[in-house]
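REVIEWER CHECKLIST
Item 1: Sequence provided? yes
Item 2: Single chain? yes
Item 3: Sequence as submitted:
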Amino acid sequence: MVLLTLLARVTDGLPLSASIDNSNEKEQNLQVYQNQAKQLFRKLSHNSPSRCTLESGPMLIHYQIEQGVCFLIICHHNFSKKLAFNYLAELAQSFLERYATQIGQASRPYTFIEFETTIRKLMKSYTDSRSPKQLSKINNDLADVQRIMVQNIEDVIQRGEQLSVLDNKANNLSMMSRQYKKESHQLNLNAQQWKYIAAGVGFVFLFLFLRYWVF
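Item 4: Structure as written out by the authors:
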């Protein structure tokens, strides 16, 4: 289930709205994750990946950036990743439909706190991930969530690297991996070709030997 939802402006990390699930007393101690989220907001830029998942102990932090706003949630590891990003997509659509033209004018934290009512309703609808409605959303391939970058929140915060840098590193590693596979495949093809050439040359020598020396 979604335990905490935070919205912030990407340019300066200004919190725009938020909501916390108070239905479970065991989850009251979310302050540490909320602080991590606020530190993360200060690392974001317009070059940051538009969607990302960050690990923080037993919790996962998922976020999605749209039109200069970061929509972020904190939930348990066992909460479906597809549901998490479906939730973020619905959240972003609802918020931007109402406040898209006012985001740049916000000058104080939680300017759109009245949006919490909408967040609470949406959080409630995603409470049971096993309901038929939510299972249908899991099976709906709105997004390829398997390709979303996963990082450790402490690594991002402590190293002080922006997520855009980490995303570039991940892309570089992916490119290097593809290049290695391509070169390895080419080497295998070359090796096979040399085997056939050697076999052909050997056959020619054997044919000539039999023709001129045996017959």
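Item 5: Key structural point noted by reviewer: The first strand starts at residue 2 and ends at 9.
Item 6: Recommendation: ____
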